[in-house]
C-alpha cells in the first residue's frame, strides 16, 4: 500500500535522524502493491462468475496489486458497507460493479473526500455529479438490445403476429434498463408485436424457471408464444427448461428464445437450435480496468466512457471449435 509506504519512509527518516537502525528487509515489496478494493454484485450468473475471474486473474501480487474482493450477494447495502470499509482501509482504488443505478451519491462522495478514485465496471450509476467516478468500463446495453430487436424484426418480415414474453433482469440495473428500453421501443413501433407478459427473472435461472413455469400454466394454448426475450443466459436456461417441460418446442420452428451474454453454454444451445439468437456481452473486463488504473498511476486522465466491442450469434455463425475456444 503506497500510503503505508509513505508513512514508513517518513518513520524511517525520523529513525535514521535519531540514529536508530532501519530494518533492511522491511515489507517494501508488500508496501509497493497497489491496493484495489472491489465490490462485486454477486455470483448470480455465468457472466458474473467469468467477470470476477477476469478481475482476479489480473489483480494479482505478481502484477503488483493487492485485491480486496467483496461479493455483495446481490444487495446494494452490502456494496455500500464494503465501500465504507475500503475507505477505512485507505485502499488506492475502488472498483465498483453497481447492482443498480440509483443510491450512490453519498457513498461515492465519501470516497472522494477520502481521495480514493472510483472506477465503475459493467453497470453504471446515476449520480448528480459525474466527477464522482473516474471512468466507466462495460457494455452499451441499449446497443445490445437494439441488436436483439433488429434480429426479431428480420425473423418476422411479413407483418405476422409476434407474441413476446419478456423476462427481465434485476430492475434498475443498467443491463436491464438498456435491454428493456430497446424492446419496449420496438414493441411500440411494430403494430404486429404484442407484449404478452413481463416477468421478473432477476438474472437467475432458478427465479426464471419458477416465474415462467407459473406463467405457462396460466396460458391456454401452446401456439401462443413466438419469442421469449431473455435478458441474460441464465434467464434463458430457466425459460428453456420451463418451456420444454410445458411441451413447447424451442427454435426457429417454435418459440424463438433470444438471449444476452453468449456464454459457452448458451452458444452450445444456439448451435443445437434451442436458442435462436445470443447477443454477446463481454465479461472479460479485467485487463481494461488494469490499463485504466495504470494510466491513472502515470498521472493520466482515463477515458471516461469505455465500451467494449460485442457481436451477435445465430447458429449460422457458430462452430464447435469457436465455442471451445471461448474463455467463458
Ligand atoms: O448480462 C448478467 C449479469 O450486468 C452485464 O448481469 C451484466 C449482466 C449480465 O448477471 O448475466
Describe this structure in words.
The chain is of the alpha/beta class. The chain has helices at residues 2-17, 28-32, 46-58, 76-88, 105-113, 141-155, 174-189, 205-218, 233-245, 264-271, 286-297, 320-325; strands at residues 34-40, 65-71, 93-96, 118-121, 135-138, 162-168, 193-200, 227-230, 256-261, 277-280, 305-307, 312-313. The protein has twelve helices and twelve strands. The strands form two sheets. Strands 2-1-3-4-5-11 form a six-stranded parallel beta sheet, with helices on both faces. The chain has a six-stranded mixed beta sheet with strand order 7-6-8-9-10-12, with helices on both faces. It is elongated and about 70 Å long. Bound molecules: beta-D-fucofuranose. Beta-D-fucofuranose (GYE) binds at residues 44-45, 47-48, 122-123, 139, 175, 203, 232, 260-261, 281. Residues 44-45, 47-48, 122-123, 139, 175, 203, 232, 260-261, 281 line the site of beta-D-fucofuranose.
Q: Overall 3D geometry?
A: elongated
The H/E string reads HHEHEHEHEEHEHEHEHEHEHEEH
Bin the helical content.
40-55%
Radius of gyration: 23 Å
Strand fraction: 15-25%
The end-to-end span amounts to 32 Å
Bound molecules: beta-D-fucofuranose
Amino acid at each position: 500500500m503506497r500510503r503505508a509506504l509513505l508513512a514508513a519512509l517518513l518513520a524511517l527518516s525520523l529513525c535514521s535522524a535519531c540514529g536508530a537502525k532501519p530494518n533492511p528487509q522491511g515489507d517494501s515489496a508488500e508496501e509497493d502493491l497497489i491496493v484495489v478494493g472491489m465490490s462485486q454484485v454477486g455470483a448470480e450468473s455465468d457472466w458474473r462468475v467469468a467477470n470476477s475471474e477476469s478481475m482476479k486473474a489480473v489483480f494479482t501480487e505478481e502484477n503488483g496489486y493487492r485485491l480486496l474482493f467483496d461479493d455483495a450477494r446481490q444487495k446494494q447495502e452490502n456494496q455500500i458497507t464494503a465501500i465504507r470499509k475500503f475507505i477505512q482501509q485507505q485502499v488506492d482504488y475502488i472498483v465498483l460493479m453497481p447492482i443498480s443505478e440509483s443510491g450512490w451519491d453519498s457513498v461515492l462522495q465519501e470516497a472522494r473526500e477520502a481521495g480514493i478514485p472510483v472506477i465503475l465496471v459493467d453497470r453504471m450509476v446515476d449520480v448528480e455529479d459525474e466527477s464522482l467516478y473516474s471512468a466507466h468500463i462495460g457494455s452499451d446495453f441499449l446497443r445490445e438490445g437494439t441488436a436483439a430487436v433488429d434480429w426479431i424484426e428480420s425473423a418476422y418480415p411479413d407483418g405476422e403476429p409476434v407474441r413476446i414474453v419478456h423476462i427481465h433482469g434485476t430492475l434498475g440495473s443498467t443491463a436491464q434498463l438498456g435491454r428493456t428500453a430497446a424492446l419496449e421501443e420496438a414493441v411500440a413501433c411494430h403494430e404486429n408485436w404484442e407484449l404478452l407478459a413481463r416477468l421478473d427473472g432477476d438474472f437467475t435461472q432458478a427465479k426464471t424457471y419458477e416465474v415462467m413455469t407459473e406463467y405457462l400454466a396460466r396460458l391456454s394454448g401452446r401456439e401462443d408464444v413466438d419469442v421469449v426475450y431473455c435478458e441474460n443466459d441464465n434467464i434463458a436456461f430457466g425459460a428453456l427448461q420451463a418451456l420444454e417441460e410445458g411441451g413447447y418446442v424451442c427454435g426457429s420452428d417454435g418459440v424463438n428464445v433470444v438471449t444476452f451474454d453468449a456464454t459457452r453454454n448458451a452458444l452450445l444451445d444456439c448451435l443445437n437450435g434451442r436458442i435462436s439468437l445470443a447477443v454477446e456481452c463481454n465479461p472479460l473486463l479485467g485487463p481494461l480496468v488494469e490499463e485504466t488504473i495504470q494510466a491513472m498511476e502515470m498521472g493520466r486522465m482515463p477515458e471516461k466512457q469505455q465500451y467494449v466491442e460485442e457481436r451477435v450469434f445465430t447458429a449460422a455463425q457458430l462452430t464447435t471449435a469457436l465455442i471451445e475456444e471461448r474463455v467463458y
